[in-house]
Automatic annotation (TrEMBL):
It is found in: Cell membrane. This is Glutamate receptor 3. GO terms for biological process: detection of stimulus involved in sensory perception. It comes from Cacopsylla melanoneura. InterPro entries: Insect_Ionotropic_Sensory_Rcpt, Iontro_rcpt_C. The keyword Methyltransferase does not apply.
Length: 423
């Protein structure tokens, strides 16, 4: 255009690699030009996996390890206290003198209550549920009056408060904003992933940057299997081909924000889809005024451009123009919470209810088998507890035995331990 006289001055981004140029001349840089990665944005990634990816893998592993460690510590302390008879039974027996000796068959004597409390409180599963309850800010049952165990429970409660607060904050922000991770933060990550095809205009400066030298006919080895591969990318020599490729699956387009904005605003293009703009500026170049050699206006242009640079006018105009032509990728994210976020959670709840129902049926069948194995009229064992006698269905028990059991039941109710819970 400059050679045939159709234009006197041309604004074009270019990288000058030689000073030996007898035909053209250029001014000071007017603005910067760069290429960015664009890809199709289907949705905000709404999924029940948000409940899992809220924490990283290492944090989940550390959380599970801490929960297991505190459970083992609580279990060990309780076991040692019962093993060395450090745990008192003041809460379990109101008046030891009223307890009947084991020879009389009283199931509520001191020894049995101690064993019952031991196997109830020292259970590793019970300790795990207490620790997990404190982690989820649901409170936990204090299994002992011991200050050492209470200190562990206090640590669990405060640690659980911190973890629960941090988890809830990140989870709510992720569900509310529909946060979507950037697939390729840099151009190099596209070559490393090898999962997407990179479409670039063959006549662009970005395509030249993918070569070792400008005069080479082939691209660098790491780009040969990724750039402009069929059928995703056709002959990427025009903007129309870029517009057709941007809406295809597993395609990333390397283009300038100005050209991509013009493509998206074109109402006559055949396909239309939301486009996400990924961070990073690649293949930067400066745009200068090109003119014929020894143009008399070159010095005037340089003086005007220099003044606009020093006053910040060019930077302001460039940021103002680019912000209007192409929205940032953060503005394209949906902010609604949909059913997809909790579909997996509802499925887990349904499976848990189904599993608990199956376990209940097994328990009913197991209890029925024990009941059927008891012969009618069989005299119950005096060492059996009242609940076991009722479970066996002893209908022929004498009236005196029934009255004795009712008396023991009243004594048992008076001896029920009062559980204390930290909330």
């Amino acid at each position: 255009m400059l050679m045939n006289g159709t234009a006197d001055v041309r604004l074009v981004p270019v990288i000058v690699t030689t000073a030996d140029n007898e035909d053209f001349d250029f001014t000071l840089p007017v603005a910067q030009n760069w290429y960015e990665l664009f890809t199709r944005s289907d949705d905000d990634g709404a999924s029940s996996l948000s409940y899992i990816v809220t924490w990283s893998d290492k944090l989940w592993f550390a959380f599970a390890g801490t929960c297991l460690l505190l459970s083992l510590i609580t279990y060990s302390m309780l076991y040692l206290r019962y093993n060395y008879r450090l745990e008192k039974l003041d809460d379990e027996i109101v008046d030891p003198a009223t307890a009947v000796s084991p020879d009389e068959g009283n199931p509520l004597n001191k020894t049995e209550l101690m064993m019952k409390q031991k196997y109830t409180n020292i259970s590793l599963g019970n300790c795990f549920l207490n620790v997990l309850g404190s982690f989820t800010s649901q409170g936990c049952e204090c299994p002992s009056r011991s200050y050492s165990i209470r200190l562990v429970i206090l640590v669990c409660l405060f640690f659980g408060l911190l973890m629960n607060t941090s988890y809830s904050a990140v989870l709510v922000s992720r569900l509310a904003t529909g946060q979507k991770e950037i697939l390729f933060p840099t151009l190099t990550s596209v070559a490393q992933a090898k999962t997407h095809t990179l479409c670039v205009r063959t006549g662009s400066f970005a395509y030249v940057k993918l070569k070792e030298r400008e005069t080479d006919s082939q691209l660098k080895p790491e780009w040969r299997d990724i750039v402009n591969k069929l059928p995703a990318c056709l002959n990427e020599s025009s903007q129309q081909n870029i517009a057709n490729a941007i809406c295809k699956d597993n395609v990333v387009v390397l283009e300038t924000p100005i050209i991509m904005a013009a493509i998206l605003k074109d109402l006559e293009r055949t396909n239309s889809c939301p486009v996400m703009r990924m961070a990073g500026r690649n293949a930067k170049a400066v745009a200068s005024l090109f003119m014929t050699k020894w143009n008399p206006l070159r010095q005037d242009f340089n003086e005007i451009i220099f003044r606009m640079h020093t006053t910040g006018i060019l930077d302001y105009l460039q940021q103002k123009w680019l912000s209007r032509t192409m929205p940032d990728y953060k503005e394209l994210v949906s902010s609604e919470v949909r059913m997809d976020h909790i579909a997996g959670v509802l499925l887990v709840y349904f499976l848990a209810i189904l599993l608990s129902s199956c376990i209940l049926m097994i328990e009913i069948l197991s209890t029925g088998c024990k009941y059927n194995n008891t012969r009618p009229g069989q005299k119950p064992n005096k060492n059996q507890s009242l609940s076991e006698r009722n479970l066996l269905g002893n209908e022929t028990e004498p009236k005196e035995t029934v009255n004795e059991d009712l008396t023991l039941l009243g004594s048992y109710k008076a001896q029920i331990p009062i559980r204390r819970a930290f909330m």
